[in-house]
Amino acid sequence: MVHDTFHVLFDPQHELNLRSRGSCKQVALRANGTAQGEMKRLFIFVRSIAVVLLVLECCPAAFAQDEKTDLGGNKETSRSGFTGAGAGGSGTTAAKPGGADGLGNPTLGGERHPLYRLRPSDVVEISFTVAPEFNQTLTVQPDGYVMLKDAGMVEVQGLDLEQFSEAVQKAYRGYLHDPQAAVTLKEFERPYFIVGGEVGKPGKYELRSDTTVAEAVQIAGGLTQQSKHSQVVLFRRVNDDLVETRLLNLKKMLKQRSLKEDAHLRAGDLVFVPQNTISKISRFLSKASLGAYLSPAHL
Fold this sequence. Notes:
Blueprint: H1 12-73, H2 75-78, E1 123-128, E2 136-139, E3 145-148, E4 152-155, H3 161-171, E5 181-187, E6 192-197, E7 203-206, H4 213-219, E8 232-237, E9 242-248, H5 250-256, E10 270-273, E11 284-286, H6 287-293
Parallel strand pairs: 6-10
Antiparallel strand pairs: 1-2, 1-5, 3-4, 6-7, 8-9, 8-10, 9-11
């Protein structure tokens, strides 16, 4: 019997090569895993940077929009009735606030060109389209009423011409089927302002156009050497019992050649230039106390 014998020869070099290949493969896998991890971390970092930049880009736009909305919402509350820059708002109100329109907060300035309101001694003419026999010319009485032919007494003081026409038509509805009346202001008191105190020619002047306090002082002959023109006072009628005041530093405005804070006059305003310093003055004064500021001690 023949026995075949198989001999396996051990080759050390071959085993070393196999181990080396396995080690290289493991190193390559590890290196590949490390590279993928680095790429992943880099991607996450770049994405985070992009998100941050996007947020930073959006925030100013959102802030600007909110600020714009806030400014728009506060537009009315921050608006002041005073004319000129730097005049702040105020929550102070008064019954029957003044001004030619008789509406709104009683502050100096307000509507620059208000509608004319009827007052005592004004003369108005009424003309009816279909009933000329009711045409008439009337004078507003001291109590603010007029006597309409056949229709009786109607209060008209404080009304503009359109409101007066409506009041006349309402009064004649019981006499005429469709009273269409046109009203015309024939005579009226010319708008005026008064300048007193330390000016060259104190007195009453006709308010013919848009006029400021500084211009009014010049119209009245300019300032005297004794004038305290850092405390020029503007008095404005609010109602029959109340007067509103505002202090103007005319000296500063003239020195800086900036009239942004100069106030625009309205009919009936009183500009007073004192000689001495006025220590304190209330924003609203009764007409009875107005004389204290216009006494000889302040001239």
